[in-house]
Design goal:
The chain is α+β, with helices and mostly antiparallel strands. It is about 35% helix and about 25% strand. It is built from twelve helices and 18 strands. Helix 1 packs across helix 12. The longest helix is centred in the last third of the chain and has 22 residues, at about 300-320.
Length: about 425
């Protein structure tokens, strides 16, 4: 049997081919302002999946699909056994960019194309994945299908999620024809390692002038839905001292949210991203406001402190203003520490290739955060312009995409083991 070899430093992906693939995928589900609207389980999602499958099969890979649509394209190794998994997601926000998630999937495909071009064999198989419904914009929550794969959610619960029009996840999956035969999670024991390449979705790497982010941890997340109840009344004829303004109560609570997060600087963050105001009329003082506070930190004790202080401060503000208030924990996950061996492989690859790099904590949730529960996992990040993401103006450079995928290639080869 041929023994393992260190990947040669001159092995590089074809940056032009990767970029062309990104631009070709971006033609599917175009947005209105240069980005993409390829929401999960839409016709556009089905079309993007079909293109990815055609590309994978042209690269000599075999495609497997599980019963909630997760896709697994496999390149065999010289030996049987667990595989090195690479990938991310193809679904986008309604006003999403061309790179969020897609870079990780097509970067994985480019790794395989490069190995084929150079005739490189690996001892372990390599599998490129597309996880269903990472964004969670149509069917909440985010990272839904990777969560089912990792045993965090049940398949039945996943399939019963509905969108804003009341359409079920399971029904829409069947409608676009992407329900596979594999049992969800059947591949858990097949994961030797999982590596996810992603744009940073933040400004740090660009500001620091670094090519690569070596992701050591993922922030934990807490979503608390807050309902503030006052009294609907006329904005013009209700005297100021007699108002029970739920909107003003929310504003004061959100000021407290900001102060709570700042007290744990620099890594903790907090804001409200989802707000419903009732009755939402120009000349009616809001009688009820429902909003979700999003707290994040890489430290679980910090998240717990922020949650507790939100409830204390929110109750105090409501009491002072004569408002009702209710709190409901509606989502979240604990902070993630990625596998030290996989992180070292990413860092070592960046160093060997001469790319500037820094350790970084992921501020967003990713499929890797769930897969880390069932197999050794790490992430690679590349910069994005002005840190902008979840926006059609999201942009990266070809050089950044190439550098990130070069590091993915070398980290994957270290984990999969090159053979002569």
């Amino acid at each position: 049997m041929d023994g393992p070899m260190a990947p040669a430093r001159n092995l590089r992906i074809d940056g032009d081919r990767l970029w062309d693939s990104l631009m070709e995928m971006a033609k599917i589900g175009p947005g209105v302002a240069g980005g993409n609207n390829r929401q999960t389980l839409t016709d556009a999602d089905g079309e993007g999946r079909a293109l990815f499958q055609r590309w994978c099969e042209a690269a000599g890979m075999t495609m497997g699909v599980d019963r909630i649509g997760n896709m697994f394209a496999r390149r065999e190794g010289t030996e049987e056994g667990p595989a090195v998994y690479l990938g991310s997601h193809l679904d986008t926000q309604p006003t999403g960019g061309k790179y969020d998630g897609v870079l990780g999937v097509l970067g994985g495909l480019e790794v395989i194309r490069t190995l084929n071009d150079l005739g490189v064999k690996t001892r372990r198989p390599i599998v490129v994945t597309n996880w269903t419904n990472e964004e969670g914009t149509r069917f909440a929550p985010a990272m839904l299908a990777s969560g089912v794969f990792a045993g965090v959610h049940t398949q039945d619960w996943c399939e019963d999620r509905t969108d804003a029009e009341g359409k079920r996840f399971g029904d829409e999956l069947d409608r676009i024809g992407w329900r596979g035969d594999e049992e969800v999670g059947a591949r858990r024991d097949d994961i030797h390692s999982f590596l996810e390449l992603h744009i940073e979705q933040g400004p740090i790497l660009e500001a620091e002038g670094r090519d690569i982010g070596v992701v050591t941890h993922g922030q934990g997340l807490s979503w608390t839905q807050v309902t503030v109840t006052g009294k609907d009344s006329h904005t013009g004829s209700t005297p100021m001292p007699m108002r029970r303004d739920a909107g003003l109560g929310m504003a004061r609570i959100l000021q407290a949210v900001n102060e709570i997060a700042l007290s744990h600087a620099p890594h903790a963050v907090g804001a409200a991203g989802h707000i419903d105001v009732h009755p939402n009329s120009r000349n009616v003082i809001p009688g009820r406001v429902v909003f979700t506070v999003d707290f994040r930190s890489p430290d679980l004790s910090v998240i717990e402190d922020m949650e507790a202080r939100l409830r204390t401060e929110g109750q105090r503000i409501a009491d002072e203003m004569g408002l009702g208030i209710a709190f409901e924990k509606v989502g979240g996950f604990d902070p993630v520490a990625f596998d030290e061996g996989c992180v070292a492989a990413v860092r070592g690859a960046a160093e060997r290739l001469g790319y500037s790099h820094m350790d970084i904590i992921s501020g967003a949730g990713h499929d890797a955060c769930w897969i880390n529960r069932v197999g050794p996992t790490a992430m690679i990040m590349c910069p994005c312009v002005d840190g902008l993401s979840h926006n059609e103006a999201e942009e990266i450079s070809k050089d950044w995409a190439t550098a990130g995928t070069d590091v993915l290639l070398h980290a994957a080869l270290e984990r999969a083991e090159v053979v002569a």
